[in-house]
Amino acid sequence: MRARTPTRMSGVAMLEVLVAMLILMLGLLGVVGLIVRAESAEMESYQRVQALILVRDMTGRINSNRGVVACYSNGANGTQLGTGYAGTPSCILGTPAQNAQAVADMNDWNAALLGSAETQGASKVGAMIGARGCITQIDAANNIYMVTVVWQGLNPTVAPTVACGKNQYGSDDLRRAVNVTLRIGTLT
Hints:
Elements: H1 7-64, H2 69-73, E1 79-82, H3 96-113, E2 119-120, E3 123-124, E4 132-139, E5 144-152, E6 175-183
Antiparallel strand pairs: 1-4, 2-3, 4-5, 5-6
């Protein structure tokens, strides 16, 4: 009796190996997609934390120089600093020291919005994508102000309701915003 050669069996084994490799490749593609989404979520989270830090920074600055709070919001006009801002802040209320402090605060906040806290080579990379900050007077009689930081997100979501940075990021669905409403008490 002749022994059978395993030629037909080796073809089946090769097919099993190819199917297993295909399944493994599909699984790895899923893992790669998951990693990409996780990195995107991490970047969105980083930008939100940076924005919250900047909002708290400016509310602290305003609280420490509350005698000229209207300078920070430029009265009822509102102030927008950061990406796209090319002006020079000014203040003519209060004492010269208060004015100088308000101007220095706005210049420092503008620099922080533009990313001056971290550099890579000569580039400023420490802020969010297209960061803008707005200080808006909500109610002059009651000294209520809103400090807002907006930036460009990576994936579209629902557009924020605040006006700061509106129509500055292509689609408003890419605009992100954090804000704090601040009421300055009047001491008598």
